[in-house]
Amino acid sequence: MFFDFNQKSSLLLIFFFNGIIFSFLLFKRAIAHNHNPSKWLGWFVMLSTLYISPFMFGYGGWYSKKLYREILFFIPFQQLFLLGPIIYFYTQSLLNKTFRLEKRDLIHFLPAALYMVYTIIIFVTDKLILEEYYFYADGKDKDLAFWYQIAGLLSMLSYLLLSLRYYFIYKNLAYQEVSFADAILFKWIGHFLFVFTAILVLRVLFFILNPEWWEFGSKFWYYLCFSVLFFYIALSGYFNTVRAPFALDTSLLDYPRKTNLKKEMESSKLKHSQQTEIPDLEEWKSKITKFIEQEGLYTNPNLTLTDVASSLQTNRNLISKAINQGFQMNFNDYVNAQRVDAVISKFRSGQQNSKTLLGIALDCGFNSKSTFNRAFKKKTLLTPKDFLDKKGVK
């Protein structure tokens, strides 16, 4: 089979084969472990692999051969209207383990379906009805048409914004609901969205610097950069689907699918200033503090707002309001502040002479060194080591 293995085609071919392999591995994991995020990431990797295919084949000389060219013309490799929704649903599947695609979500795939119909009409008209080029009389691949590339870019930008909104809502909810928010904020999804943002920034720059879509050679560096970035997503995402911590199992994460952003923020108690005051706020402040300190609940690294509410025989909204209004902080920060106080108490009793700082932190309920250092500095404005040196605690 003819293929010109030159520098450009060979480089893209490496990423092409790796994309095929990783998409297969992700689909296999999704089926074997019923892991929804792996399925969505597998589709993203597969679509990204198809995205670079026309240029890999083009640099390999396939468009210069009539038989190959006619096949390539009629295959819609670049599914730009699918990439955005896949990113959005991958984000949701990672951050909400109860997420399942519903019938109403199918509307997101309508533009891609219409484009598929468009490509079928082109094929039927040119190859079966007229038996001569009508749509392809200009000899240019429709996937690279300016209108389609612009529309696809706008679609991906829109879904990136939706994904970022969903992530930040999740992040705020996590700080309101659990004392171990740092462990479930999915640094991976943050990295993933950052890399996808970089891909779109490159796309915009390419539009500005090189608007001529019909020159294959001038696009190589963009597609090489895209290949590197999507391979990073494939490689990192594959391993992160294995090690990722569990997501918050709460219907609150469905807010972006049901209401506007203002209502989401109000409903999830993120706009503290708009909350109504609790009549017996001081009493609840004292009760919460006394209970958490005396019972040592802060030593539970998996402590949640629901745990505290259940123990105090009240509802979680009241506890959340009391902490937000009474201590001017969210639940996560409040419990971590209690843990920092406990660490300082152990410092003053000299436990740092027989145990490591991390060991003391873990005893007090922290689940990682980074969370401990961040919470300690937030409360004392010093690192644990600097605190020991400055305060003269030995």
Automatic annotation (TrEMBL):
UniProt KW Transcription regulation keyword: yes
Keyword Glycosyltransferase among UniProt keywords: no
SMART domains per record: HTH_ARAC
Domain HTH araC/xylS-type residue range list: 286-390
Matches recorded under PROSITE patterns: HTH_ARAC_FAMILY_2 (PS01124)
Pfam families: HTH_18 (PF12833)
Matching InterPro entries: Homeodomain-like_sf, HTH_AraC
Transmembrane annotation, as ranges: 12-28, 40-59, 71-90, 106-125, 145-168, 188-208, 220-239
Keyword terms of this UniProt record: DNA-binding, Membrane, Transcription, Transcription regulation, Transmembrane, Transmembrane helix
Identification of the protein by name: Helix-turn-helix transcriptional regulator
Species of origin: Subsaximicrobium wynnwilliamsii
